[in-house]
Amino acid sequence: MKAFFALVAREISERKALLAAAAVASLIPVVAPLLPTTGSNPAGDIREVVMWFMIWGLIPLFSLLLGANFIGRDLSEGRLGFYFAQPLSGPAIWFGKLLAVAILIWAAQLILILPTAVLSSDSWRIVSAKGLIFEPLNPWISSLVMWIAPVAVILLAHALSLVWRARSLWIVVDIVAVVLLVAASRWVISPFLQIFAAHVVLAVNAWLLVGGLIGLLVAGAFQLTCGRVDAQRGHRAQSAALWSILAIAVVSAAGWGWWIRSASPGDLDLFNGISVGSGEWIAVTGPSAGRLDYFPGFIVNTADGRWISAHSGSTVHEQGVEFSEDMSRAVWTTPYSFKESKLMTVDLNDERLHPEWTGVVFNRYWQDLVVSPGGHRVAVIQAGAVVVFDIESGDLLTAAQPEGDYSAYRIHFADEDKVEVLTGMRIRVSDDSTHHRMRWRRHWLDLTTRSLDRGEEINNAWRWWGGRMHSPLRNVLEKREVEGQDRLVLVDPQDSEVVADLGEMPKQWSNVRVVTDGEIVVNRKNEERCFLQVFDSEGDLLKRIDIDMAGWAQIGGEVSPGTVAVGQIIWGAEEGQPAERSALFVDLSNGTVTHVLDGVSPVLGRWGLMGSSGAWEIGSIATRLMEGENGSLHLWDPETNELKQLIPVPE
Amino acid sequence: MNTTADPVVVDHLTVRYGKTTAVDDVSFSVGSGQVYALLGRNGAGKSSTISCLVGQRKAASGECRIFDMDSWRSRRHVMARVGVVPETPDIPPGASARELGRFLGRIRPVWNADDYEVRLERVSVPRRLPSANLSKGQRRQLALAAALATEPEVLILDDPTLGLDAVVRRTLLEELVGELADRGTTVLVTTHDLTGIEGIADRVGIMQQGHLVYDEPMDGLKERFRRLRCVLSNGCSAAEVEHALKPLEPAAVRVVGAGVDAVIGRANHDAVRVFREITGIAEVEIEPLGLEEIFVALCGDDDKGSA
Q1: Which of B56, B93, B108 lies nearest to residue A87, judging by beta carbons?
Q2: Which member of A6, A82, A88 has the closest CB to residue B91?
């Protein structure tokens, strides 16, 4: 190590003029505020802006020059033999020289920053560059980039300078390898990019980046060990090492990508999204350990445990699986490209359960997608128009654009040939107001004549909301920020004015459910205990039901008229992992707990903690699904009080 | 000739640059304490051979061994016992003599700082000036001083007198002889200063177009090669003389007026006597040759060297 550090010191000494240049340049931000053109801007701001311009301009330039010359110049001027004539190994020469230029560039950066940082009241923020960029992701990433990126530039510049200096035919290998690497990386990333699984994409990119950096590091050591003073041989060694390591990185990323996409229902940790038809099929999706924000999705038969992968997405996923009313067909979309989705389907009556592409492709930014009761047709809203396709043939049946400024908002198949369409137009409440309200119309799209009627004006669109949302409320239940606080409010759909304030709605754990008689059930918690509040449909508090729970009570579905399932989750020491669960069935009329299930909690459904206002039929499968430990899913039988395990699918 | 005891062994070495063969199947060895002069015209393959020998370039085939260690594979261990002065001094340009001494003192297993200082003093190399600011001769002296201060068991000098004036050249070589004679250091030297090396080298190897064409003790070479001058008479033609010279293994034959001036490689008494008795050849004179003359005779018509 003594020899290694002697080499580092020698190399630093060889290029110490760089530090003097940085010292001179560091004075520029200090004198910048004295220039008459800077006006009345605060001196600190001017110094900082000029300093960052200097950093982003000079440091990449220094890195580039150092990287291209710290070995390349010695090589082309025949000076590299000096170190090889000493008892120093190739890797020691490489890492010693590299460490020296890295120290120089870091020192130059620090010198450039220092005067501005010393004069600033927030020196540490400037030196660390914390939060400079990538703030939403992680404020420390900018620090990492600022101190690591110059080394990456040095490594890259060295590799390119060697290619340039060697002028060997291995450049052909390099070009082919770059093309293959880009193509392979794109192939690995593309499925995740298309579903906006940003964390997976970032992880894969970071992995490839780390692979690239390691590749360049190792390639340099190989170049000096195997090529020594021979540039062409060094180029060959560099290419062989670099592309081998990057190939390993790409193959391992591809393997990880394949593993992510090959999840089974048993891999789900939690159930964020569940859609349920009227029969025995359910569609589930949610996070899975090791898969970051990629949420695998499945269609599962609750009776016999058969399942297929369907609609895998991310936290920013699109609408999930839709079942036809007769449960003969399920449809969902998967990305076709960055701009288009393709419509997938499965015949649920077919024993093979084979997912198929319908041949239908439409704009990715569609608004609502519904399937006809018999599963023959699918309607989708695109750019305010209703488009209907035949699922079996993939043919476009009709595309209907509402008149005037109206746009389609919701659709619902009344039968195979009729689509109920809700259109709306945004209008100002009054001329002197900045508030808007919606004017709604209800239309019929006749698929036999392929015509959309003029429609009729309706007052409460939410009350209608198609056949899928049987909301008994006249007003709209909304979470709204009032004076900086999240509150649950009832809003008049006509003028968007708040009709009733149902209290605070903390972001994370509060949830609300509307039961069939129009009562609104909200979970609450004070310092001592948790409780439910029951409001009538106009927002008047009817009663308070105390629940003997340590955490927040999560209100599930209405298992029988007036009885809701309430879940309790006590979170463990490990982040995101529940330690204890239980489900209580609460009779809202008298506040009594009729039954308790240990080890499970009710599944909250696709809309998560806010709940869906009466979306589930009383006593349907949706209301009886219970989430257990380790991502297991169970179906509660109200007659026997037994739990049937659905996921993992029992052997 | 090669024995495992020889500290330096080049064994069937071939070096290629793309499709060009710079060194072709060259073998020689340098015995312990011997000074071996590897000679050849520019591009003959000397520097390529040295480059392989010091483990900086990989051979296409064959191998180089120093102290029975493969120079390529065990370069780091080999270099702990070897001093190298390259054809072009490769000392980092920013390093002064003092900094170089400090650096080498930390990385070399043996470093004789006193010897280094004394030598620098003797050859008047400034201590504080960066090597880039030194003259070519000073840089070379610095490189030599650094190599000698490591007290190497083998010293490899690639044309150490290149670009130096005659006085410096002579001083450098004389000092080298003095230094090395005391230590018994094995030396491999390539040089174009044939006069200078003549009194130093124990053995000579001559390379031509990548081939080692002569590899002999210096005394033997000088004993073998002689200048032969004669006058032609009685209608004896130059062609007849050339034919008559064949047993004497002529390296170069030149017709000068009515006479012939030749360098012969087999100047033994009997062969010369037979040549003298040939009718039409008179006034035969045999003279000893210097190394430079022998080299010119052997390599003078080698105009193809280019590697």
Answers
A1: B108
A2: A82
Could you give the number of structural domains in chain A?
3
Of A13, A78, A233, the CB nearest to B90: A78
Q: Which amino acid is at B188?
A: L
Comparing CA positions, the residue from A110, A77, A98, A76 lying closest to residue A12 is A98
Which residues of chain A lie closer than 8 angstroms to B84, CB-CB?
81, 85
**Look-up of token digits 């209301």:** A623
Are residues A56 and A171 part of one domain?
no
DSSP letter at B178 equals H
Residues sharing a CB contact under 8 Å with residue A342, sequence separation 6 or more, in sequence order: A333, A334, A335, A336, A357, A358, A360, A361
Residue ending a domain, among A108, A140, A164, is A164
What domain range includes position A229?
167-262
Q: How far apart are the C-alpha atoms of B31 and B33, rounded to whole Å? A: 6
Instruction: Quick: pLDDT tens for A118-151.
Output: 888 777 777 777 656 655 566 677 777 888 999 9
Under a CB-based contact definition with an 8 Å cutoff, are residues A305 and A263 in contact? Answer: no
In a domain, A557, yes or no: yes
Note whether residue A455 is domain-resident. Answer: no
Of the listed ranges A364-368, A531-535, B37-41, B283-287, the least confidently predicted one is: A364-368
Q: Can you give the pLDDT at residue A465?
A: 44
Q: What is the CATH number of the domain that holds A615?
A: 2.130.10.10
Cα atoms in the 13 Å half-sphere on the side-chain side of A543: 10
Contact B218, B246 (CB under 8 A): no
Q: Specify the pTM.
A: 0.79
ipTM of the complex: 0.89
Distance set, CA A178 to CA A164, A244, A247, B9 (Å): 16, 12, 11, 43
Instruction: State the Cα angle at A193 between A191 and A195, rounded to 5°.
Output: 75
Q: What is the mean pLDDT of each run of 10 residues along chain B (307 residues)?
A: 76 93 96 94 94 95 96 96 92 96 96 94 92 91 93 92 80 76 87 88 94 94 90 80 86 85 85 82 89 88 44
A71 CA: distance to closest CA in chain B (Å): 12
B66: distance to nearest CA of chain A, Å?
Answer: 13
Range name among A154-158, A160-164, A540-544, B263-267 with the lowest pLDDT average: B263-267
Token pair for A14: 């060889």
Residues of chain A contacting B, Cβ within 8 Å = 2-3, 6-7, 9-10, 13-16, 78-82, 84-89, 226, 228-230, 233
CA-to-CA separations, B275 to A255, A621, B258, B262, B272, in angstroms, rounded: 86, 122, 17, 13, 5
Q: What is the model's pLDDT at position A624?
A: 85
CA distance B57 to chain A (A): 6
Nearest alpha carbon to residue B222 among B264, B171, B189, B180? B264
For chains A and B, what is the number of CB pairs under 8 angstroms? Answer: 79
- A142 lies in the same domain as A50: yes
Strands B203-208 and A530-535: unpaired
